[in-house]
Design brief:
Elements: E1 2-7, H1 15-29, E2 33-38, H2 51-55, H3 63-70, E3 76-84, E4 87-88, H4 90-107, E5 112-118, H5 123-135, E6 149-151, H6 155-158, H7 162-187
Helix pairs in contact: 1-7, 3-4
Length: 205
């Protein structure tokens, strides 16, 4: 089993990456594979063009399509973002909008989690924003012993956030535990629920 971790920070080796690295190490120590994918350059937002509905790929051929190609080999998704103005980064929002429009079907019923990094505040608002992608797509959310956040202005400061690091380790272990539960369920003949045909209700008719 494999966990794909997305670094949606513009800083490839910054605070968000540091947090994700701790999660990834705990995943590996728990017996699963982990890969961190740099997506901080996904600054172009969704165009609403419908290209992905026809092809399963985004019309903007960048790191989003690279990630889509990796989803078949991934059993869980963890998105990491810095906090910008009490919200996820613009890159995280652009990436997740386009990824879920183009490849939501590949993610359905796979566990998901969000990790945020901040100097001081805005973390819970950013977590709430990112978790909505999972809850609209039938994805179990992996939790930890506290909200999935670290604090620090530099990677070194993040590594001194002992509580934050513990949260990251717990998240990594919990992710693998949930994947093993799902695997055991499949072996026992328990499949994911069959989806109903989508109902869309417009409030203005």
């Amino acid at each position: 089993m494999k966990v794909l971790l997305i670094n949606a920070s513009p800083h490839k080796n910054g605070c968000t990456y540091t947090a994700l690295s701790v999660v990834a190490e705990a995943v590996k120590e728990s017996g699963a594979d982990a890969e961190i994918f740099q997506a901080g350059g996904a600054t172009k937002g969704c165009l609403g063009c419908g290209f992905c509905a026809r092809t399963g790929r985004c019309v903007t051929d960048d790191c989003v399509n690279e990630a889509i190609a990796m989803l078949d080999g991934a059993d869980a998704l963890i998105i990491g973002s810095p906090v910008h103005y009490a919200a996820a980064s613009g890159a995280a929002t652009s990436f997740m909008d386009r990824l879920f429009y183009a490849a939501g079907g590949k993610l359905r019923f796979k566990p998901g989690a969000a990790v945020v990094s901040a100097r001081r505040a805005g973390t819970t608002a950013a977590l709430d924003q990112l978790n909505k992608y999972f809850t609209i797509n039938n994805m179990p959310i992996v939790s930890s012993g506290y909200w999935n956040m670290v604090h620090g202005n530099t990677p070194d400061e993040v590594m001194r956030d002992e509580e934050g690091l513990q949260i990251m380790r717990t998240l990594g272990r919990n992710t693998v535990w949930l994947l093993r539960c799902i695997e055991a369920g499949r072996a026992a003949g328990i499949d994911a629920p069959a989806p109903e045909e989508k109902i869309r209700t417009n409030f203005i008719r």
